[in-house]
């Protein structure tokens, strides 16, 4: 089963993902951008470049995703493992959808749909996506504005895109109020995961 954690920068995904590692010791924990390949290194280089071309950046993130799929996700799913990924394809749909729209780099009507379509022929959709919902102000404050994505105005567009994704696939997404205290957020995530794992044949926490 493939479970992904999504949300704005600073929404608390990594905090939750790290706590889950104690509860699910047999699961495969992974992330995007990857931090163990040259594709991931290239993505982090682009994140640090304020003048990066938005279309080139989409394909850097997508190359990293393709490698992540073949190297980590597909083998783990074939082995029947529970896979928990801190960010995955929805980050591309929300973030690059917003960046491309702002840069006017592409002659398409709907930038989010374009990014979804790029993934469609090769990607594996998650079984469950836990969306940690925070307002852009809280997100930017918590994240500390350390990169070009962590600005309130940009995060507003990213959040609008996440809302579209939740509307498109209400059965895949579970929204959790991530402005709650960390313990309450973790409890809500654990409750969601336990319900999803019931009857899946995979072990509960
Ligand atoms: N529920 C919470 N309430 C208050 N602060 C939180 C909460 N969850 C996480 N934090 C704090 O917010 C900061 C960002 O958290 P974290 O790194 O988990 O977010 P993230 O979503 O993974 O961010 P990014 O996408 O930028 O990596 C950290 O300092 C963390 O301790
Ligand atoms: C996977 C992915 C990520 N991003 C953005 C979101 C963050 O600002 C950075 C790095 O992610 P991290 O969780 O803070 O390490 O990259 C993106 O724009 N598109 C993506 O596909």
Order of helices and strands: EHEHHEHHEHHEH
Strand order of the largest sheet: 2-3-1-4-5
N-C termini distance: 15 Å
Rounded to the nearest angstrom, the radius of gyration is 16 Å
The named CATH superfamily: P-loop containing nucleotide triphosphate hydrolases
CATH-scheme architecture: 3-Layer(aba) Sandwich
- Helix % is 40-55%
Largest sheet: 5 strands, parallel
Descriptive notes:
It contains eight helices and five strands; from the N terminus they run E-H-E-H-H-E-H-H-E-H-H-E-H. It starts with a strand and ends in an 8-residue tail after the last helix. The chain has one domain: P-loop containing nucleotide triphosphate hydrolases (Rossmann fold). The protein is α/β, with parallel strands linked by helices and about 200 residues long. The ligand Cc1cn([C@H]2C[C@H](O)[C@@H](COP(=O)(O)O)O2)c(=O)[nH]c1=O binds near residues 9 and 96.
């Amino acid at each position: 089963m493939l479970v992904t954690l999504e949300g704005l920068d600073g929404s608390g995904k990594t905090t939750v993902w790290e706590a889950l590692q104690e509860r699910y010791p047999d699961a495969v924990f992974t992330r995007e951008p990857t931090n163990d390949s040259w594709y991931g290194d290239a993505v982090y280089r682009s994140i640090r470049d304020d003048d990066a071309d938005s279309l080139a950046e989409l394909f850097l993130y997508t190359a990293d995703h393709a490698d992540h799929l073949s190297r980590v996700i597909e083998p783990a799913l074939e082995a029947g493992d529970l896979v928990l990924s801190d960010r995955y394809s929805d980050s591309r749909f929300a973030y690059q959808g917003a960046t491309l729209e702002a840069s006017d780099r592409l002659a398409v009507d709907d930038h989010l749909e374009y990014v979804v379509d790029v993934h469609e022929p090769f990607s594996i959709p998650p079984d469950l996506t836990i969306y940690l919902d925070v307002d852009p102000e809280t997100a930017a404050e918590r994240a500390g504005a350390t990169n070009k994505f962590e600005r309130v105005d940009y995060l507003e567009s990213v959040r609008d895109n996440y809302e579209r994704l939740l509307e498109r696939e209400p059965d895949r997404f579970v929204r959790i109020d991530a402005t709650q205290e960390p313990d309450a957020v973790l409890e809500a995530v654990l409750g969601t995961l336990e319900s999803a794992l019931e009857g899946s044949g995979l072990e509960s926490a």
